[in-house]
Specification:
alpha/beta; 18 helices; six-stranded parallel beta sheet
Length: 516
Amino acid sequence: MTTSISTTDTVTRDALAVLQPGFTGTTAPDWVLRRVDEGLASVALFGRNIRTAEQVTALTAQLRAGREDLLVAIDEEGGDVTRLEVRTGSSFPGNLALGHVDDLALTRAVAQELGRRLAECGVNLNWAPSADVNSNPGNPIIGVRSFGADTGLVARHTAAYIEGLQASGVAACTKHFPGHGDTAIDSHHAMPRIDVDLETLHARELVPFRAAIAAGSKCVMSAHILLPALDPDRPATVSPRILTGLLRQELGYDGLIVTDAVEMQAISATYGIEQGSVLAIAAGADALCVGGGLEDDGTVLRLRDALVRAVHSGELAEERLADAAARVRALASWTQGAKGAGPGAAAQEGTAPGTGIGSDIGLVAARRAVRATGSAGPLTEPGYVAAFTSASNIAVGDETPWGVGAELGRLLPGTGTGTYSSETEAPVDAVLAAAGERRIVAVVRDVHRHAWMGEALDALVARRPDTVVVEMGVPQAAPRGALHIATHGAARVCGLAAAELIVRGTDGRRPERRRA
């Protein structure tokens, strides 16, 4: 029973120390402050906790009132996965855009500026970057979150990102070990499985993680995936062979190992979150991410007590729990001493001329990431933006806006917008009726994964050949439209970069924003 467990003994404090829970609200609940006083060493922020930078700064100050070295974690990849700008879209392009540009100084500078903003808000642990090699184009969960499908490219940009982020004083957390890029299932919903041999894993999946370790990544996040070549029975998060044998012993990693969220179905539906948490710590994990979907004191107490009972029963060695808690505290201590550096190499060497490492470095990167196929004159009159959409994966979330409609509307006031899905009856007829004589801009994300979307685009372009098509996911399908724009991500700045190109045409100059 919860009431039988002391809140002051060492085992209980260590059990609290390895948890990284989330919570609801934009101020710290009393229960969180109470658990921090009892030994909780980390908390996690999600989009639900964030309104403004000023509010987040006040929240982190409140959280640290009783513990100055508290780790405050966030899942801020930039690009499609943003928490700081969950309601507006990110000011930074994501990994695929940076990988497409393939300028290490730019990647380093973008990560450093993102880290600077996090540090200013009091966040000191970022669950980023994704080091997954997106070898499966149909991957439903990684996609634009990866730097690309080339192993060497992913490895060098992973290292550059870590260097930039940690130069800001924010600890990087490289994910999803040992590599989530070849999956066809989202681990939020079920257990993915990668059936490749050891040679392939070492030559592809593990290369970026070796680079991350060499770059000094302070944290590595495990993936809830089954890799029979490494362990035929247990997914990585609960596998001693993978976390201790491979990551610790073979690869020589000595930093913090944190799990992906333990409430994800790949773990919770297989083991339950209590048993899954015990198995993860026993396997070699040092911290448990929890709170994306479970954000209450009851969950924290359940996991704390499950770990304590496992120590008392002998299922979990007390020394293993103590070692895990010590690694959490060591990372917290590092963040206390880490200080952000000044402008990065991109600013100093002119990769982003005239920008320094200021607030527009993300837009500079997004503009460089745009790839245009075909040609078209400038759009000088209000057009019509038709967004063909599918459900976002859970990591991205449905609350973050994406597309080019808002940005194109700012450049050309009066531009119309409409959203169409696989449930829309006769979507092409609906688009044509709504557009009238206005030029159509069709916006898609990962059209290669959605047959209905490709069919709608083909029919639309056949009837309106001057259509502009903007692909904001992984560009795999053949270019369509008079002008086809690949942004390599759906961040707000990617939408702006595409809108600028549409308004100026393929041979024009960048437009000034017009006032409505």
